[in-house]
Amino acid sequence: MRATIIHGPGDIRVEERDKPTIQKPTDAIIKLSAACVCGSDLWSYRGIESLAGPAPMGHEYVGVVEEVGSAVTDIKPGQFVVGSFFASDNTCEICRSGYQSGCIHREGVSGAQAEYLRVPLADGTLVATPEHPAKDQIASLLAASDVLGTGWFAAVAAEIGPGKTVAVVGDGAVGLLGILSAKQLGAERIIAMSRHADRQALAREYGATDIVDERGDEGVAKIKELIGGLGAHSVIEAVGTQESMTQAIRATRAGGHVGYVGVSHGVELDGHDLFFSHVHLHGGPAPVREYLPHLIDLILRGEINPGKVFDLELPLDQAADAYQAMDERRAIKVLLRP
After folding, report:
1. What architecture is domain 150-283?
2. pLDDT for 114-171, tens place per residue?
3. Does the N terminus or the C terminus of the chain have fewer Cβ atoms within 10 A?
4. 151: Cβ–Cβ under 8 A, 6 or more apart, which residues?
């Protein structure tokens, strides 16, 4: 089969690899209908994360089940399924509390930018749609497998609800779908921090009421100016840098909540400043599996269209072009068709 492999910074190749096989009785093999490039994939593409050697890429996926292991009872061959980037049993105490990404048996899922994928712990990881979706629903279901699930978790972690004022730091796919999630959860006012006209337009379509293009201390001051000087009730941090986390905390009012889901790189918090901020911090790898049934239902009923974050679609063979487009910010998110 064809699979996307990273060999080093800026070096993405689509190569022939062995088709995955069942390795454990709890596995499933999926024929992928769509995959995509994630913003977090760019950390290794840019050389910020080190590589031990050539590695398969991709952790967002939807497709049709081709084969299941002998211990898989709920997921059946022929079903269209959506999964997430961590495999979980969905039965342990941590999973039952809603944190499947912290499952005591969790396994990372990788290699989804390919034609086929092995998914461990299939019964606990995959969610089947009632029937095969329409072609124009596949992009949104793919978004649910990570960026929508992550944006939704960020909104929940930030305690977003009716009457709340929200600020969103980061205008990538996760930040934009954090805006969509905030709107769905009833936020009264949503401030998007963005400098890019195309992303600002989508932010407004998803529910943003205000746009702030300043960053750092200027951005914090602008947010506070817009809402009476107190800061936002809820802030989503969807980048993972020192600047974005500092900005998120400082834009939050005393007693407010930050939902942080940007993969942290070099972030250090000043304990003294944090102590006196009275800000709640909650985040980490999103437990996407917790939200998948609800998100899939919203998509299939046509209530949300998260697939609009895919503003470029390419065949799998052009995966290198997809990475370059996202690295150069010529695309918000690129969908790959195997």
Report:
1. 3-Layer(aba) Sandwich (3.40)
2. 999 999 999 999 999 999 999 999 999 999 999 999 999 999 999 999 999 999 999 9
3. N
4. 173, 174, 175, 176, 177, 178, 179, 180, 181, 236, 238, 261
Tell me, what amino acid is at 229? G
Q: Which two tokens mark 222?
A: 């602008």
State the maximum Cα–Cα separation within the chain, in Å, rounded to a whole number: 60
Spatial CA neighbour of 61 closest among 125, 136, 155 = 125
How many CB atoms are closer than 10 A to CB 230? Answer: 14
* Domains of the chain, residue spans: 2-146+287-337, 150-283
> What length does the chain have?
338
CATH superfamily of 2-146+287-337: Medium-chain alcohol dehydrogenases, catalytic domain (3.90.180.10)
- Partner residues linked to 31 by β-bridges: 64, 116
Looking at residue 266, its pLDDT comes to 87
Task: Please name every residue paired with 191 in a beta bridge, in sequence order, or none if there are none.
Answer: 167, 210
Per-residue confidence band for 53, with pLDDT thresholds at 50, 70 and 90: confident
